[in-house]
């Protein structure tokens, strides 16, 4: 495929030509020109870049609307194409500025659910994440002059997400292109290369659409059919990549099945103070479980093999407070099957630290095996530099104890099923889910508590990640949420059952237990690192590649 090449002139050269705005007679006095002041230069720069910046901001808003709860996934292609066109032929600094201008409104739209903590948190996190988009914009500008620039741009999108998923403090993967495409033609690609391959395909398709638009724009003053061929090729390849995902089979054949029941006990109020009085949330889940047991005895419901409670379903440490342990025992004995209980458990030796755990609770033996969340959320579940920051930001005092990270995967034997427990935001991290499946999980359970962010769009965003993980690993994914959205997702990514937010209820389903692994399971992070390294190396080498690609003049000089 022939992609229309990037502009040969640099923006600096164009700006230099634009500076000559008048004729100076040869007999004019020899007076040194006065250099404009700094603010005047900045004002002139702002006026020149304002149209592009406005378009970049609109593209950022469009990208935010591609994600749940709006789910307008085609806008992710539009945003990628828009950024590629806006930075095309620009300097790295200009590309960084446009990337930042796109990234800030994007994350403001995406992360507005953080407003329950404070709008300063929304702006601060959005700005931090937008800095990665600034680096992406700079890289896209550098590779835009190279042959096959849509390919290198797609690799840079993967590199940007690779860095943002890990830095700083373990990263924050929200806003990956893959998470906007959990119900699009690109989704099945997750079974081959995970979320990074989906991101790559979306970014490559968007880049090819940009190449098509650039080629057609070049024909506005007239041209032959031959000159239009690169644009047609770019569009055809974009369509082929989009359609390719629909041809990929998603494995769903079950080796065995298990009947599960997910209990959503609900909370009294959304927001930061969702806990209410002690034992209230625990009692909600216990009563819903006892009602399920009554329905089973009355023949109104099928008896499950396993019951799943959400994260924080016990709002008191059951190993420290006898009343909490007794209440869990009552509910588990009533239903008569193992229950996976979510609870905060005090660290046995480190004062001020707690474990966020999923505990297998047997009706006869009581508490047994457990999984501890490996990736606590910085500033939400632990406070880095607590002593220093708490003096400046008093809000951190609302996080009185730090969550202590676990050191092993969450594969648990719960009744007849070997389940992989993943807690809350961990569903966004590739390595945690991948390692859990590779350790032998036959189905995945996402224990989560989204009561703080209820009716804000955050539960929908997290559920979308569960859909992608189902396809990526060929596993049923059961999401148990304290206040919703609890759901059962089939291995092909379709939602089988769900409970709306802030509703007490039980959802039951027979889910497949699978041992077969997908190609994405077997290759792990190799596609991500390969694509990211290719993108970074191309970006670094772009000046050399660009010089070698220019035609030589008659003297053999470039």
**Average pLDDT metric:** 90
Q: Helical content, roughly? A: 40-55%
Alpha plus pi helix count: 15
Count every beta strand, where a strand is a DSSP E run of 2 or more residues: 13
* Oligomer description: single chain
Q: In angstroms, what is the radius of gyration?
A: 27 Å
CATH superfamily of the largest domain: Carbon-nitrogen hydrolase
**CATH topology-level name of the largest domain:** Nitrilase/N-carbamoyl-D-aminoacid amidohydrolase
The CATH class label of the largest domain is Alpha Beta
Strand residue content: 5-15%
* CATH architectural group of the largest domain: 4-Layer Sandwich
**What structural category characterises the helix and strand content?**
alpha/beta
Fill in the keyword field for this structure.
membrane; Nitrilase/N-carbamoyl-D-aminoacid amidohydrolase; alpha/beta; 6-stranded mixed beta sheet; 2 domains; 7-stranded mixed beta sheet; 558 residues; 14% strand; disordered C terminus; 45% helix; single chain
Summarize, please.
The chain folds into 2 domains: 49-249 and 525-549, no CATH class; 256-517, 4-Layer Sandwich (Nitrilase/N-carbamoyl-D-aminoacid amidohydrolase). 45% of the residues lie in helices and 14% in strands. It has 15 helices and 13 strands.
């Amino acid at each position: 495929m022939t992609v229309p090449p990037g502009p040969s002139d640099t923006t600096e050269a164009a700006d230099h030509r634009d500076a000559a705005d008048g004729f100076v007679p040869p007999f004019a006095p020899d007076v040194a020109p006065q250099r404009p002041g700094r603010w005047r230069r900045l004002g002139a720069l702002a006026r020149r870049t304002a149209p592009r910046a406005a378009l970049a901001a609109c593209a950022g808003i469009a990208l935010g609307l591609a994600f749940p709860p709006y789910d307008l996934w085609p806008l992710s292609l539009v945003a990628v194409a828009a950024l590629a066109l806006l930075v095309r032929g620009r300097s790295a600094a200009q590309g960084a500025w446009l990337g930042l201008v796109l990234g800030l409104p994007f994350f403001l739209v995406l992360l507005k659910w953080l407003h329950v903590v404070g709008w300063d948190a929304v702006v601060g996190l959005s700005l931090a994440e937008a800095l990665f988009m600034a680096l992406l914009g700079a890289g896209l500008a550098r590779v835009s002059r190279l042959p096959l620039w849509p390919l290198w741009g797609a690799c840079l999108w993967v590199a940007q997400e690779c860095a943002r998923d890990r830095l700083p403090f373990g990263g924050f993967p929200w806003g990956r292109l893959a998470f906007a495409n959990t119900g699009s033609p690109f989704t099945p690609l997750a079974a081959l290369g995970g979320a990074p391959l989906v991101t790559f395909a979306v970014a490559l398709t968007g880049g090819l659409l940009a190449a098509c638009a650039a080629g057609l724009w070049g024909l506005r003053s007239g041209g032959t059919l031959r000159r239009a061929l690169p644009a047609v090729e770019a569009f055809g390849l974009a369509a082929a990549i989009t359609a390719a995902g629909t041809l990929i089979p998603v494995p769903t054949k079950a080796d065995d099945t298990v009947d599960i029941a997910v209990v959503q006990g609900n909370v009294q109020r959304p927001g930061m103070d969702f806990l209410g009085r002690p034992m209230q949330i625990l009692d909600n889940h216990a009563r819903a479980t006892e009602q399920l047991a009554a329905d089973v005895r009355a023949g109104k419901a099928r008896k499950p093999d396993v019951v799943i409670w959400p994260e924080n379903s016990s709002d008191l440490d059951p190993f420290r407070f006898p009343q909490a342990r007794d209440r869990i025992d009552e509910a588990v004995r009533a239903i008569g099957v193992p229950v996976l209980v979510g609870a905060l458990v005090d660290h046995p030796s480190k004062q001020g630290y707690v474990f966020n755990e999923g505990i297998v609770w047997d009706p006869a033996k009581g508490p047994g095996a457990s999984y501890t969340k490996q990736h606590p959320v910085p500033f939400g579940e632990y406070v880095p530099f607590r002593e220093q920051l708490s003096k400046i930001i008093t809000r951190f005092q609302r996080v009185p104890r730090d969550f202590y990270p676990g050191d092993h995967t969450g594969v648990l034997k719960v009744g007849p099923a070997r389940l992989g427990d993943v807690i809350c935001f961990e569903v966004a991290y590739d390595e945690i889910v991948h390692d859990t499946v590779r350790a032998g999980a036959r189905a995945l359970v996402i224990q989560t508590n989204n009561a703080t962010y209820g009716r804000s769009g955050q539960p929908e965003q997290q559920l979308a990640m569960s859909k992608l993980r189902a396809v990526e690993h060929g596993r049923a994914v059961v999401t148990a949420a304290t206040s919703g959205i609890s759901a059962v997702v089939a291995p092909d990514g379709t939602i089988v059952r769900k409970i709306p937010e802030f509703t007490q209820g039980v959802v039951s389903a027979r889910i497949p237990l699978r041992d077969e692994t997908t190609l994405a399971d077997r290759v792990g992070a190799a596609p991500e690192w390969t694509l990211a390294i290719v993108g970074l190396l191309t970006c670094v080498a772009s000046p050399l590649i660009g010089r070698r690609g220019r035609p030589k003049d008659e003297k053999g000089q470039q």
